[in-house]
Amino acid sequence: MTIGAGPRRVFRTVLGSAVLLAVALMPGTSLGNAGDGLIGDQPPRVTDTCFWKVPFRPDTRNILALDTNVTYYYSSFYLPAGASVVFRGRFPHSRFMSLTSYLTTGGQAGLPATALNDVDIDPDPRGTNPFRDGALRTAHRRAYTVTVRGDVDPGPGNRASNTLYVGQAGETNTTQFVELIYRIYRPDQGYDLTGGVETPKPRLVRADGTATSGQRLCDEAQVVSGIEAPIPAFGPPIGFPEAQYDAVLALGPPTHPAVEPTVWYRFFNQKRLAEPFFKGTVLEGNIATLPTALTSGLYATPANAYMIGYASRLLGPDPAGHNVLVLHAKMPTHAASFDRSPVSDTGGKQVRYWSICNYGALVQEVGVGPVLMDGCLFDEQVPVDADGFYTIVVSLPEDRPANANEACGVAWLDWGKGDWLARPDLANLTIRNQLSNPSFAEGIDKVVVPDTEQQVLGDFYPTGHYLTRTQFEARGCPGTGSPSGAFIDG
Fold first, then answer.
1. Does the predicted model carry a pTM greater than 0.70?
2. Are residues 385 and 459 in the same domain?
């Protein structure tokens, strides 16, 4: 079906940003900063032009399994032969931004074609790219110009500066269908969801050198954008239809596919998402038939690598299911930005951005309802100890330990509604590594063979064990000497 067609929209759940999740726009939801941890001192600047309409966010339409710190602007259009689109924009005040093109081929939609990440873009003359290491992040002159061309990507070393190549072999002499996503990750504190800048302004330059912009551009190029855009439908199913999902869950114990300790799987491709559901069941032999290629697709963010783990509150000491999951691992070193750091510190960091999110079930169609998402934590929200290790507690709000707070060096993530179907105990947790440093050998992107995640990540592989609230509180509050039960939530 075409997503967004008709008054009754079906949403599809995903694992990671890579899998499509179409959700009906919730009436009355805010397009601003409420609830996402961003302290605003500006009104939300939601660009509503014909080229970049209302963006995808968890509070508008979570079609790409966003985390709560990300805004995606989607636009599709037809590019005439020999024409190009020239964007004039300003670098946002944020952790990351990118412009990525996608294509549909072989029955699969949303295959990343080419991308320009923020550090790849040269600023206009006398300007500053605030994302480059050591640059002034508050620079006033932050304009850039990017050109989208219908030529085939000539490859590294042959690309023109600030150019996104979207052409496909054998089609460059025809009008080509182009999909773009403009992403902004984690605006700085006090800035709106755009990072305090307008979306890039496009101008269509035809093969004869004449140009047009505004509504005329959108009419001529047949632009479709924003949350109402009919994103191309998928060929293969996403995960399991609901009946098959129920059946495969029934093949294992009541906690299936969650196990203790938590097992994490890198996202390789759509079909391999079935691995944890097959493991430990009569279908385990099918795992060997699953593809191992890193094909991604499904509108994945090329700058990210993803790792997925399942958890169940039924695991642990409390038979009533009021257990808490305790995750412990080393946090990759990362850029700092939220508090408006004046100078960019991206150089030498292991990742640009890290986050963990709690999503719903791997189900193709689950009806109409609210966003299948229970929240995220990004790196700067997770305290670490002197050795760089973090502790995250995942629980229902009523089961949250009193010492699961920043003052005690513990981050807390809401267990929420589970799989949003019949398994409120089941959580789907996804961890992102963004722009992993080539020298960071323990990055998720360095996992190139399935089931080697723990071996590759080492200390960065989260161990996941279950306790009761009382058991966790008995650990006390490091550095305060507080006895069990004497903590204040925060």
1. yes
2. yes
Question: 41 versus 121: which is more confidently predicted?
Answer: 121
Number of domains forming the structure of the chain: 2
**Cα distance between residue 441 and residue 447, in whole Å:** 9
Shared-domain flag, residues 183 and 268: no
Domain finish residue from 191, 225, 259: 225
Q: Is 64 contained in some domain?
A: no
Q: Can you give the pLDDT at residue 24?
A: 24
Structural domain harbouring 413: 242-473
State pLDDT tens for residues 191-239: 988 899 999 999 999 999 999 999 999 999 999 998 777 766 444 445 6
Model pLDDT for residues 332-388, shown as the tens digit of each residue: 999 999 999 999 999 899 999 999 999 877 665 443 333 456 689 999 999 999 999
Please indicate, yes or no, if residue 51 is contained in any of the structural domains: no
